[in-house]
Amino acid sequence: MVKMMNDKKPSFFEGRRAFLKGTAYTVAGAAVAKGVFTNIIDTPAFAEDHERVTAPVNLERYPDPEKWDSYLELDGNDWKRGGTGRNGVKSASNPHGIKLTEYMLVPTACLNCEASCGLTAWVDIGVYKETKNPKDLKVRKYMGNPLHAGSRGRNCAKGYATQSQMYDPDRIPFPLKRAPGSKRGEGKWVRTTWDEAMKEIGTKMKTTLERGDEISRKSIMYHVGRPNENGFGHRVPHSMGCDGYDSHTNICSAGARQGTIQWTNDDRNSPDWANADLIFLQSSHAADAGHYFQQAAGRIADARKKGAKLVVMDPRMSNSAGMADLWVPVWPGTETALYLYLANRILNEKGRNGEDLVNHNFVKNWVNWDRLMANKEYLNLLVEKGYIKSLPKGDSYEDFIEMIAGMYKPLYT
Ligand code: SF4
Fold first, then answer.
1. Does residue 143 line the site of ligand 1, with CB under 6 A?
2. Measured from the CB, is residue 101 less than 6 Å from ligand 1?
3. What's the pTM value of the predicted model, to 2 decimals?
């Protein structure tokens, strides 16, 4: 256990990495304040054979936002070289060869999926401070943004990989247009400027729309991969009378979203994970991937810390299944049969003390049972198709429960 100067106990999150970062901060503080690195850390795990610098006052998971304009951190390579007191570049004022990097932490957002988690870009401002050349500003890494309400400082691997994308040698950070004289499909391109690209596209759209006929409006198409917004992007082309807005989805996403849109009238709703007692995931992978799930995963972890149980139904042993309290390894495609079985037991069996297993309060408030009971045409169709034997006696909630209890009862036992 790290003994800190103020004897504050490390919190749940304060692991070794936080300790290293916190130590770096204190190193920075000591360096700035005194210009020397002479203190000895009071940390049993490290103090035995290494001379160390002052232990941090607080082991911080993230630097205090007050320090984001100028935050000094021990260089990552310095730790690789052996940390303080070993192989760093030494000098009279820096006897332990400690290298500090001065960062400005700039809040931004990850665009690798629509969850748009908060990030902080760690911009190395050391060289820039001397040269004043903006080209010397380099983002060294991306970390979470603890002030972001959705992700709360947590990111999936794609968020941290933003740095690799940014400096990827294959990245094309400027617009291209077809080389003059070349034909579509020839793959010949020349660089253009943003101003020129916007002007050219804008002019073409304007002249096309000015024709005013249906065909012209339909000849404009706007395609965006993942739109990174929720139901806004299509309104811009719609406002110009164009219906050629296109983005993509995929079968896993579309299937899940269809369910939540029908059930809750919301696209990828966000349950109150953190206050759940039992969390049930069917073929969804909080611990693996899935847009939006990274932010949900943090809240699922919060709930589990409070004692919630996690049940995962999945044919494969996913990472999420591996962490669950119960893994239900169904055969692929048999999930629905399991749900029918559960519905039957809940509707047609009693609890240990003879109580109903149905949460009537929930069903009354969250299921559109009254609309179903009012729809006589549909009820007649259910009779006609053999899903129910006869029309319900009345249209009360009790009649509804009796009807569906019969509906989910197996025909053969
Ligand atoms: S879930 Fe991952 S990829 Fe999506 S926005 Fe958050 S960090 Fe980026």
1. no
2. no
3. 0.67
- 269-332: same fold as 16-166? no
Predicted pLDDT at 110: 92
Burial (CB count <10 Å: 0-12, 13-18, 19+), residue 191: exposed
Instruction: Write down the pLDDT at residue 73.
Output: 83
Query: What are the angstrom distances between the C-alpha of 360 and each of 82, 245, 272, 352, 367?
Result: 63, 43, 20, 17, 10
Confirm or reject: Cβ of 310 under 6 Å from ligand 1.
Answer: no
Tell me the backbone φ, ψ of residue 102, rounded to 5 degrees: -95, 120
Instruction: Look at residue 11 in the predicted model and tell me its pLDDT.
Output: 32
- Per residue in 138-183, pLDDT (tens digit) is 999 999 999 998 888 888 889 999 999 999 999 998 999 999 999 9
226 Cβ closer than 6 Å to some ligand 1 atom: no
Question: How many whole angstroms separate alpha carbon 52 and alpha carbon 27?
Answer: 9
What CATH code is assigned to 16-166?
2.20.25.90
CATH architecture entry for 269-332:
3-Layer(aba) Sandwich (3.40)
Ligand 1 atom nearest the C-alpha of 115 is: 5
Amino acid letter at 49?
D
Q: Is 228 in the pocket of ligand 1 (CB under 6 A)?
A: no
For residue 294 and ligand 1, the question of a CB distance below 6 A is answered with: yes
Q: What is the b/e burial string over 8-19, where b = at least 16 CB atoms within 10 angstroms of the residue's CB?
A: eebeeebeeebb
CA of 162 to the centre of ligand 1 (A): 10
Residue with tokens 């494969």: 316
- The pLDDT score that the predictor gives to residue 233 is 80
Taking 70 as the pLDDT cut, the residues of the chain under it are 1-61, 76-89, 96-97, 228, 230, 249-250, 252, 289-292, 412-413
Distance, in Å, from the CA atom of 107 to the CA atom of 142, rounded to the nearest integer, reads 10
pLDDT at 93: 74
299-330 pLDDT per residue, tens: 898 999 999 999 999 999 988 899 999 999 99
Sketch the domain layout of the chain as residue ranges: 16-166, 199-248, 269-332, 334-413
Looking up tokens 């025909």 gives 411
Euclidean distance between CA atoms 372 and 381, whole angstroms: 12
Residue nearest (by alpha carbon) to ligand 1 atom 2: 156
Go through the chain and tell me how many residues it has. Answer: 413
